[in-house]
Specification:
alpha/beta; TIM Barrel; about 30% helix; about 350 residues; 13 helices; 9-stranded mixed β-sheet
């Protein structure tokens, strides 16, 4: 029988924690003391094709922050495959941002002037059920030093690009040796002055921010910005605060982007608490994204009118620097649409 207690994940390295993520729904159910009958009525069966394409994956340290016996826990709902994912909805598609059209070179996405995004890996520590890249053809953009060399040549040939964004998947799922090599190559391209990293790992596996990671992040030639992804105040604990403190000790700018998700963070108090808790640990709220219409995620949708009302009320409760911009990503547009 699977024990009803979490293993001592604190003693594991971040690599071991990444390898030891929970991928079995029955185990997750037992660890959280969920009623098996309620669980079976709401979760997506493992033999469903939608599950096979995007299975459960969640770090044990993140599960530790979930409420026991609560099938509606806001952290659980972000990662639990549910039956709605198998339902088709008009307008919800596999590539909602049409990123293939913005890929001038394998592994590069360039949508906005002055910056380019490098797709470093399809690996993530956690499979967020609302992920806009849950259907992304990573096999067609397979990361390797050969493809990275091609991407670097592209960047060298386009002097208007001054900022490079590392994305995926999650770029911090890669080893530090690979990331050190890549960042060293970027640092010698004269017109690139800013390195931005989009990652959820400092939140879901805070131990990822270790000394080896801080070494390659400690750049003399590049200004480093890290954009973490945190949707709910319950995601933030002492370990996350410590990871942020380690990053800030290297003068790294840390911002947060969240997604507005139905039944998870679509309340005024939750959004207010999230901004305050982020600021308390040294992170500035940056974006509050409206849901990208990716197939399988329609049950997370918050309509525009409700989103704007929530955002307007948030502006009445918080100082301006703690109010994230309410934005929507528009395919082929030259900037995000700001709704508030």
């Amino acid at each position: 029988m699977i024990p009803h207690t979490l293993p001592t994940w604190q003693s594991l390295t971040w690599q071991q924690q990444l390898a030891d993520t929970i991928r079995d729904q029955t185990e997750l159910c037992q660890l959280l003391d969920l009623d098996p009958r309620q669980f079976a009525a709401t979760h997506l069966p493992v033999d469903n094709p939608s599950y096979a394409r995007f299975p459960l994956r969640v770090p044990r340290s993140f599960v530790k922050r979930m409420g026991r016996g609560d099938l509606h826990d806001p952290l659980l709902l972000q990662v639990l495959p549910q039956y709605q994912e198998a339902q088709t909805q008009p307008g919800f598609v596999s590539d909602p941002l049409r990123e293939d059209e913005a890929s001038p070179n394998p592994g590069i996405i360039q949508k906005y002037q002055g910056r380019a995004l490098l797709m470093l890996t399809g690996a993530c520590a956690v499979h967020c059920r609302y992920c806009f890249r849950r259907h992304y053809p990573y096999d067609q953009h397979r990361p390797s030093k050969t493809n990275w060399a091609s991407s670097l040549r592209y960047l060298q040939q386009h002097p208007a690009i001054t900022e490079v964004i590392l994305s995926g998947g999650d770029p911090l799922a890669l080893g530090d040796d690979h990331l050190q090599w890549l960042v060293d190559q970027l640092a010698v391209i004269d017109h690139i002055d800013t390195l931005r990293i989009h990652t959820r790992l400092p939140v879901v596996i805070p131990d990822r921010i270790d000394e080896a990671c801080l070494t390659w992040l400690n750049q003399r030639h590049l200004r480093v910005v890290m954009v973490i992804h945190c949707n709910h105040p319950n995601e933030i604990n002492a370990d996350v605060a410590d990871a942020v403190a380690r990053l800030r000790s290297r003068d790294i700018v840390i911002l947060n982007q969240a997604v507005l998700l139905k039944n998870i963070n679509d309340s005024l108090n939750t959004l207010q608490d999230l901004s305050k808790k982020l600021f308390k640990i040294g992170v500035l709220p940056y974006y509050l994204h409206l849901l990208d219409p990716v197939a399988g995620a329609h049950h997370f949708l918050v309509d525009d009118l409700r989103a704007k009302r929530l955002h307007d009320k948030l502006k009445g409760r918080l100082p301006g620097y703690l109010v994230p911009k309410l934005v929507r990503e528009i395919p082929t547009a030259d900037a995000k649409q700001v709704l508030g």
